[in-house]
Design a protein that fits this description.
By secondary structure, the chain is an alpha+beta fold. Helix content is about 15%, strand content about 40%. The longest helix has 13 residues, at about 70-85.
Amino acid sequence: MLPFVKLQGAGNDYIAIDGRNKDYDWNQLSIDMSKPAFGVGSDGILVVFDSDISDIRMRIYNPDGSEAEISGNGIRLFTKFIIDEKIIIPKKDFIQIETGDGIKTVFPEIVSNKVISSRVEMGIPNFIPSIIPINVPNMKDSDPPKFSLKVLDYNLEITCLSVGNPHAVCIMDENVDDFPLVEVGTLVEKHSYFPNRINFEIVNIISRKKIRARIFERGAGETLSSGTGSTASASASRYNGFVDDDVEVVLDGGSLNISWDKKDMAILEGPSVEVFKGVWSNQII
């Protein structure tokens, strides 16, 4: 019997579990719990572990069982889970969480002892090809990580970057709502240019303060929202000179805000909502 909480942030939904002193096959558990008809249904699971270097440790598992380095929405929902469930009691206005992409600082907004939203320091976006990583023929680390990618009948103008995990962003004039994201994204994710697979975003520029994005997540498929996907979409738009330093990202599941500080640190802000609690024993009780 395994207690869990399902949460969502702008439509990106995760199952949070206290994994301390528990012995599970977390990869398989994520596959089983994430199934929408036979499990709980989610974009993956977030598991709590103790940390020797931070306040707490978060591990993230995708619906296909693979482990992700980081999730921007996931870490906000994780923050709500650990504070609401009193796994940790914040001693300051921020907490630090160990992730697969290092330690992240999160600033929760708490109302009546419950987290309603958070700001997350996502790190400085990285556009160096070998670090992302991408393997594009004849591309050097000193080159901009921009190239054309032919997939099916589409010539995609791609900008790649890492925000703790790899992303390929296509800023297009075509309405993203009319684009076959699942069909194309399935091929982009596993393209030979991307040795660790890649997350794929398509973007319309609405104004210098607003963009519209759809997101195909590595290991999960199309999602209603993604914190890292939104950060990457906004960062690629900024890198190409289309937006300013405070951007609303409009997603299928709602909106998230991305900004950058004077050191070029990307800051993600958005809501954190509990959907329900349950107990897993191959069914919700």
